[in-house]
Specification:
With 133 residues, the chain is α+β, with helices and mostly antiparallel strands. The chain is 27% helix and 47% strand. A hairpin with a 5-residue loop joins strand 3 and strand 4.
Length: 133
Amino acid sequence: MSARAHLRRSRAHGSRFTVAAVVALLWAGAVGSAGAQENFRVTYGREQPASGPTIISGTVFNDARLDAFDVYVTAQALNDSGKVVASGITYVTSSIPAGRSSAFTAKVPNVPGVASFRVSVSSARMGYGAQSP
């Protein structure tokens, strides 16, 4: 096999490996996100002050058998067609033990055309006992 043919073959293998690695990473991220959300229930209410952002206050329940660490919530304002028109992210707490809950407050910019809100845990790590960074 000539040096050029070997180089072309090596590049083709490298490209296939890169594509496979990217697909695997995307799949792993999707699975991790879906699994984390299943461990939580979120209840909330909203308060619309005369001026300023909408205040979303609620509780995150950790229904898992593991403790949740570094928990964040995302509150999204949706229009009539379900499109996100504004959002706010807030840090809830460093730890929610298994079977326990924690209160949160998030602010979402006040924009016209908001029909409803969707609130969910957007980030958390699951584990046992004390965790260090």
